[in-house]
Amino acid sequence: MINNFDDYDAGRMDDLSFDRSAFMNAPSKPVKAPEKPFILLAELQDALIGVIEGADTHPRACYSTDMVKNILREKHDLSEELAQEAINTLIRTYLGPSTPCFLDTSILADE
């Protein structure tokens, strides 16, 4: 390996997390990852927990099942049973690789 050390920074050598080989072999321009869109359900924005990356590396919106149930009961005046059926339908619906996921957050509910 040939390196002229023009960009050598002695201060970085003290940092134990500094990976010298990655620094020397780093590409000259940062590589931008291709953007992958994900599906957001506007009606359920208050139940959004965050965005996760699925096993296939597609980002997915993640919603709280308890909060979704509350939204369905309050905004749409659904009974407990109908709200649960609607959540089950949302969970089973496949909208492609960026299909939203639903996390059971019932263990976090105050009782």
Descriptive report:
By secondary structure, this protein is α+β, with helices and mostly antiparallel strands. The chain has a domain at 42-108. It has three helices and three strands; from the N terminus they run αββααβ. It has helices at residues 20-24, 65-75, 80-92, and strands at residues 48-53, 59-64, 101-103. A hairpin with a 5-residue loop joins strand 1 and strand 2. Helix 2 crosses helix 3. The mean pLDDT is 78.
Question: Biggest sheet, in brief?
Answer: 3 strands, mixed
Radius of gyration: 23 Å
- What is the chain-wise order of helices and strands? HEEHHE
The number of distinct β-strands equals 3
Concise description?
With 111 residues, this protein is α+β, with helices and mostly antiparallel strands. Helices cover 26% and strands 14% of the residues.
